[in-house]
Design a protein that fits this description.
With 91 residues, the chain is mostly helical. 47% of the residues lie in helices and 11% in strands. The chain has one domain. It starts with a helix and ends with a helix.
Length: 91
């Protein structure tokens, strides 16, 4: 956030955009690390940012943009993959 504030001084929309990009990249890194450690993860949106801010004790200046659930899957998902040859053809 410090980078967004200094690089985009007096540009609140640019600050917000950079913060969203940074949060998304951090979430991606967290999800990749969780997968590598054998955990399942899921990005969640569609939540009440004000309620999350209050629950987490965040100041008004902070805007929660996404949540990441991390845990062990109750059941193993079935992996269905089409053969590469069915999806890709070299010309």
């Amino acid at each position: 956030m410090a980078f967004a504030q200094s690089a985009f001084h007096e540009q609140p929309q640019a600050q917000r955009d950079e913060a969203m990009r940074s949060a998304s990249l951090a979430a991606m890194a967290l999800m990749l690390a969780a997968t590598e450690a054998g955990w399942a993860s899921c990005r969640m949106s569609g939540f009440d940012p004000a309620a999350v801010r209050q629950l987490a004790g965040l100041p008004e200046s902070h805007l929660p943009v996404l949540l990441v659930a991390v845990g062990k899957a109750a059941t193993q998902a079935q992996k269905v993959r089409a053969p590469v040859e069915q999806l890709w053809r070299r010309i």
